[in-house]
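Quick one, T. Sequence first:
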Amino acid sequence: MPPPPPSGKTLFLKPKEAGPLAAKKTELSAKLKPSQEGIRINSVRQSASAVVITLEGVQDARKIRENKDVEQLFDVEDQRKSRPQVLIYDVKAAMAPKEIVDGIYKLNFEDSQWSAERFASCMKPKFKVGPKDGPSRNWVL
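Structure tokens:
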């Protein structure tokens, strides 16, 4: 089972100027003084194109956004919403994507407060996976 998502606030700091990201991360560490500014940082890591900082809360994110040194070096972005994918096994090959969504809604959400339209807007079949011949397919939603 994967670990639960972090409870704090995550920021992506994308460098304004080109150059090695490791050097930018080092420069950030030299300019940002969390203990003096009262910023509670849980972790700092490097992704492919940004420095990712996980903070304790929204107030800490506000302090980083307002920091002049960070503002000169980086564009600060919030974490994007996650859209997890689900794999559904053994769906009849002849079923259309709309039929799959309608079937899931009828089996699981018909008695809930969610309308069929709202559910359909959130649950979108993305693509089929697995063997192409046979009576059933697997779908990623």
